[in-house]
Amino acid sequence: MIEAKHVQFCYHNDAPVLKDVSFTLEKGESLCVLGPNGTGKTTLFRCVINLHKLQGGKVLIDGKNSASLRAEARARLIAYVPQASALTFPYTVRETVLMGRIAHQKLGASPSHKDKLAAEAAMERLDVLHMAQCRFHELSGGERQLVLVARALAQQAEYLVLDEPTSSLDYANQIRILQVIKHLASDGYAILMTSHLPDQTFLAATRVLMLKDGLVFACGAPEATVTSQNLSALYGLDVCVTEAQATFAAGAYKSKVCIPSMP
């Protein structure tokens, strides 16, 4: 599991962004972090993967301190999908997804047949195989996000850290990503993700962590944690969480939905 224990972080000499954050994430779980802008969600993720050095606390991955792991060892355990990619070179989609295999290769080695099969399987799962020869930097924002998730899957890490994985995606692709996340958790992966859409927690998360002002505001199962009272306090506006039911060809379906006050 991943264990974050009393994590603290601040930028330079500024006020602390993360004051005291603790949580656990076990394999087979998908933990969605909710919170307003500027509350430290991305910072927390970057602390988990050791891109930021903690000022206090620690992060353990399978019982080992993340800060003490070699970069390649950490990459075999955790795959990270940021909100946006800085790739500007004219890599193809296939080449971009193959980058997820670097953690499994010797220095300077070319991709093996196994690497290519893993990349192709990931592209097929995210339905981007037909774009394999397209240039990554020429894709739309939503298409890039799908490719980056495919790259994370090709990495075959046990933990996936996804920073707003549905951002820039149209509605159909948002649902596709959420379905992939749900299935990956069922397959035994551990998913740490964030979203600005609390409704998504009912579709893909097994637990929810609410973060506010650098502290854990609430944590638990979506049904118990994503409530009208908690969402209203978290975001500072009136939100009603209610249950909706729809009937499709496959049968009836129930899910909770979040409705903000729009006077």
Topology:
Blueprint: E1 2-9, E2 18-25, E3 30-34, H1 41-48, E4 56-61, E5 64-65, H2 71-77, E6 78-81, H3 93-98, H4 113-125, H5 141-154, E7 159-162, H6 171-186, E8 190-194, H7 199-204, E9 207-212, E10 215-220, H8 222-225, H9 228-235, E11 239-248, E12 251-260
The CATH architecture term is 3-Layer(aba) Sandwich
Q: Average pLDDT value?
A: 91
Please name the fourth-level CATH homologous superfamily. P-loop containing nucleotide triphosphate hydrolases
Q: How many domains, as an integer? A: 1
Helix content: 25-40%
Order of helices and strands: EEEHEEHEHHHEHEHEEHHEE
**CATH class (first level) name:** Alpha Beta
Shape: globular
Give the helix/strand class.
alpha/beta
Task: Provide a descriptive summary of the structure in words.
The protein starts with a strand and ends with a strand. The protein has a six-stranded mixed sheet, with helices on both faces. 38% of the residues are buried. The chain has helices at 41-48, 71-77, 93-98, 113-125, 141-154, 171-186, 199-204, 222-225, 228-235, and strands at 2-9, 18-25, 30-34, 56-61, 64-65, 78-81, 159-162, 190-194, 207-212, 215-220, 239-248, 251-260. The protein has nine helices and twelve strands. It has a single domain (2-226), classed as Rossmann fold, CATH 3.40.50.300. Helix 4 packs across helix 5 (141-154). The chain is of the alpha/beta class and 263 residues long.
